[in-house]
Amino acid sequence: MKYRDLIENALNGHGADYCEIRIEETDNSRLSYRGKSLDTIAQTSGLGGNVRAATKGGWGFASFNSLDELSHKVSDAVAQSKAVGGSKTELGEAEPHVDVVPAYIVEDPTEISLDEKKRQMDHYNDLVWSVDGINSADLIYGDSSRKTYFGSSDGSYIEQQQVHVVSRISAQARNGGDVQQAGFSLGSQGDYGLIRGLDDQVIEAAKRAVALLEAKSLEGGERTVILDPVLAGVFVHEAFGHLSEGDNVYENDKLKEIMYMGRKFGGKHLNFTDGAAIPALRGSFKYDDEGTPATRTALVREGELVGRLHSRETAAKLDEKPTGNARAIGYNFPPIVRMTNTIIEPGEATLEDLLEGIEDGVYVRNWYGGMTQHEMFTFSSGEAYMIRNGEIQEAVRPVMLTGNLFETLQNLDGVGNDLDMNQGGGCGKGGQSPLPVSNGSPHIRIRKCLISGA
Amino acid sequence: MSESLLNAAASKFDEAEVYRIESESHPVSFESNKLKEIMRRDTSGVALRVIDNGRIGFTSTTDAARESELVERAATLTPFGSKASFSFPAPMPYPTVDIVDTAVPRVSQQSMIDTGRGLIERLLDEWPDLLCDARIGWSTGRGRIMNSAGIDEDYEQTGYYCSLGAQLIRGTDMLNVWAGYGSSHLFGEDELDRLIQTVRRSLSWSKESALASPNSGDLPVIFTPRGVGATLLHPLMSGFNGKNVVNGSSPLGERWGEKIVDERISIYDNPLISGASGSRPFDDEGVASQKHVLIERGVAAGPLLDLQTAGQLGKTSTGAAGRGLASTPSPTSSVIDIAAGDTHFEDMIAGIKEGLIIEELLGAGQGNELGGDFRANVSLGYKIENGEIVGRVKDTMISGNVYKVLSQVEHVGDTADWVFGSMRAPAIQCLGVQVAAKHE
Known about the structure:
heterodimer
């Protein structure tokens, strides 16, 4: 237990209601390609830490790269918390845990030589360029190891390591001023193997980019849409997940009135959960960054709000239980309430069932991005196809979808039986981005969904 | 430390560069009308970039104990690195740019708390149902850039910033508005008043709700200075990014010197403006800063270049290299300055029978920006009917292409306002923006 004594000694006699120290060691590798050639190859390492203290409901936070004089840093953060505090520190119950959690590893990317990683990505870059009509390519490979050492005045000391692999492969085709792109993102916790065997997917993406130059743009307006599992995962993350984060609600009486337990959001086919206690996904871990063990939280059961995501503070203030969702992207940020692995649970319908009877709709696949501002959300597809007479037909240019939580969930009238996870994304909130998360869903159908013109 | 690292690297590789940063920031945050948190963040680290046998190696660390690994790490990486199209520059003269205010590090915690409290109280006096967030902070940064061609430059920069947000909920209708400003200089009541005015204006224009009518691009849209930043800036700047020009994905690739937008549009990247966030005497590769023309009277002048992209295009760096500690430099804009025109904002509104005002977007940047396209949900925008603002629009999306929209300019505002301290822009009224909206 590398930093246990250092942390315990520094916390000794801290003088706040609560105090914690998190030290972090990181190692990252990154390869990126742009145009025809390798753009960057880099290896970076980091050491940093922070002290967070609470006094009378106020918070102080100090982050640093040097671990020297740690007890002075504790004094600084405690003094800051005292300058803020004026009420009462409320933190949800936490059993102290002492634990060492090794990284979840299938095939360790840090054991793979740089030479091999580069050969693999060179190969995909060559494949993109082997497709006629390609004008440019963007490929990124990255792996990271993050080891955290957490100790708190409640008596916890937890060491945890996480290893992540991410990749995005994107191809561009151009006709004069018209530039179109297509691609895909992948991610895994602890498995370099995900980078292998992508030849077909890479070629398919490159061909799609070229074909998009000929594809039509849709007129903006309301349509029936079917989302594939990847995009539906992004949908539940954006449309529902963020509003179920307790820090949006805990100091906001009006929002409490709207997001009350038992509120009906839609039909019985709506069942949403979030939790890090599912092994091996991007958003999985054993303890969150406050030392709370991971859980699985039901957010919506049969269309009704039944739970939300918490840090220790938001749980206490709402008189609910901590759920293990307090996460920080790095040592220079305090933990805030975040999603982990967010899922729409599968229903009974096949894709054919969902398509049946749609006269004029759009089938949207794959993601490009998404954003939320309270009840408003938008997200973008990577691919879009017309649906006519219940059949998926020609490709059109990718679209952006938008909506309002309260209406859109009422219009979500079909849930498929084919759950699949999207591991290629990262989430941003409060300047902390991209945090590893996953989301997943079966195919879903939404009536009267507003889509943009392209 | 920097000298010994540079010496060790320069003796092992053909060329070397050491980039070191050290910064501290002190933000004070208010959440839901209350003081919530005081922070202090210290950051320090060093990056090493080398060129050996024509290839680039890059590595960095924030762990002082591992600095000794950097030379070895660079040696492992460089044989795989990308081809260098440049050499590190020799010392050159730098312009004087005012980016330090010695009053900034003397700002007390209490004065930041008082400032935040004062801003929130002023809003609550008028709108007691608001939930306000605020963040006030100062920062100092010191950097040093050294290379084997003889550059050894220190720089120092201060920063002071303030942002203010307000939320209003009526039923399930939620309104979020905010304003922010940052400068290398300490600022006072005038700028704080402007923040309050911005928030107040958004709140009062949003008192009523309005429905946007879907259209085919023939209705006028006014982008406020913030709306210009939120909608048009990113897709436009991606065309001027040297990397996109090098790899052929900029639509401006063969159009330098041609008229690409309305002649009332002139845009500069100007890191020499005193006090602006983003101003600097030299860029992150040690190349002297200059005022760079992007668009002059509608004509595309030239891309933003760092050393590598300049070398690839056979040109010289425009001094546009930006970098973080853990990333290699790439072309980055500093302070965007868009020339004002001659129409009063009020006159633009008065002259519109039906149209929209765009202030903030949700989800911009998800579309195909490389081609100049934009599309997003209008998170803060208003409808104009018969020359008057009638209310806030929601469930509305806009889309278009920045080159087409800026070719259909109707009016350019007569004042250029600072947007968050790093961009100055007028309001711009154009045609050609597609609007999609919910029926009902």
